[in-house]
Amino acid sequence: MATILNGKSIVLGVTGSIAAFKAADLASKLTQAGALVDIVLTRSAGEFVGVATFAGLTHRPVSTGLFESNSELGIDHVALARRADLILIAPATANVLAKLAHGITDDVLTATVLARSQPLVVAPAMDADMYENPATQANVKTLISRGVHFIGPESGRLASGLVGNGRMTEVPEIIGHVRAILGRSGDLADRQVVVSAGGTEEAIDPVRVLTNRSTGKMGYAIAEAARDRGAKVTLITAPTYLPIPVGVNLVAVGSAIEMQKAVRNACLESDLLVMAAAVSDYRPSDPSDNKIKKTGDDGLSIDLSQNPDIIAGISGERLVKVAFAAETNDVIENADAKLLSKGVDMVVANDVSAADSGFGTDTNAVTFVRPGREPETMPLMDKFDVGNALLDRALPLLK
Ligand SMILES: Cc1cc2nc3c(=O)[nH]c(=O)nc-3n(C[C@H](O)[C@H](O)[C@H](O)COP(=O)(O)O)c2cc1C
């Protein structure tokens, strides 16, 4: 899976917080995603995690001092500042925030930051009292006013044993923010994209639902792909176990009727609607107000009513519509029929009965079906890459 991190140059500044050990995981995950990660350690950070850990994880030299230059870089701070696409400081101490706010450059990290023109992202970590201290708060305010991106800190149990605001944000979320910031000027910049995801739940009674095997992975991957290309994304999701993607506007719904309402609202001003949700075709006609009890040996019949076809009923002046067609047989024929019956610009057909494709998997094999064009069958791909392939094909259709 190739995200926006692939090939990007990221300077990761690590400062002297107890959370410095988490920076090793962060450096590893960024490197695994294909980023070229240059670590800059403050002297205090070196007391917590050593150079060897970071050099081993990133396969690159680690900068530790203004006067201990890596020969490859010449003057480290200037070279790092020039080649970085983004500078991230995680964890960021109270001390480094104070120095940044006042333009102090007494180490290689603060000097690199002062010499940069790229986005600066900081993830503070400190004791709650240090964070709430008026001096720190004033520094945070100053840095925000200068366009520095803050991630966290979060509330929770701190290393001191106290509970409060000061925990460093977890690594996956930091990476989500970095991706969103790197993608801001992408080819979907300022486009409004609505994505639906997950399997709707239709109430039978207060404790039981009629649903399907959709996990939401496909829709969530499309939402992240669109966010990474600069889109403003609204993700309308039926219940899933997936983490909420950073930087998208999440609207949680249950039933098909609720999803229809949310999609309608979100599409009023939108450029693109991708319906990746598995919407129940039917719902119980008369859900019981009370839990249905077992009665002897009798079976139970439930009357079903048809749900509305969400995408067919939605139109917008500039709205481009993409529907998914999850099929188990006659995949292309059924997708072709949907193209007409739903009045959509593209159908993404997938055979949910195939191995490694469809519900719950991390990969999908799809065919793009568009009016007047031969169906385009893609190889088995990661769902995120399918999302990007879909967006590549939707982009020229946008009005
Ligand atoms: C065990 C220990 C844990 C620390 N944890 C933090 C922390 O989480 N956040 C913080 O701002 N300072 C923390 N400090 C204090 C910093 O290490 C200290 O302010 C140092 O000067 C920071 O230097 P730097 O910003 O150049 O890395 C800690 C100190 C010790 C000894």
Task: Give a written overview of the molecule.
The chain has helices at 20-32, 45-48, 51-58, 76-83, 94-101, 108-114, 128-132, 134-145, 171-182, 217-228, 256-267, 331-341, 383-394; strands at 9-14, 36-41, 62-63, 86-92, 120-124, 149-150, 154-157, 163-167, 192-197, 202-203, 209-210, 232-237, 249-252, 272-275, 282-284, 304-306, 320-327, 346-351, 363-364, 366-369, 376-377, 381-382. The protein is an alpha/beta fold and 399 residues long. It has two domains: 9-182, Flavin prenyltransferase-like (Rossmann fold); 192-289 and 301-397, CoaB-like (Rossmann fold, 3-Layer(aba) Sandwich), CATH 3.40.50. The strands form six sheets. It has an eight-stranded mixed β-sheet, sandwiched between helices. It has a six-stranded parallel β-sheet with strand order 3-2-1-4-5-6, with helices on both faces. Strands 7-8 form a two-stranded antiparallel ribbon. Strand 17 (320-327), helix 12 and strand 18 (346-351) form a beta-alpha-beta unit. The model has no long low-confidence stretch (mean pLDDT 92).
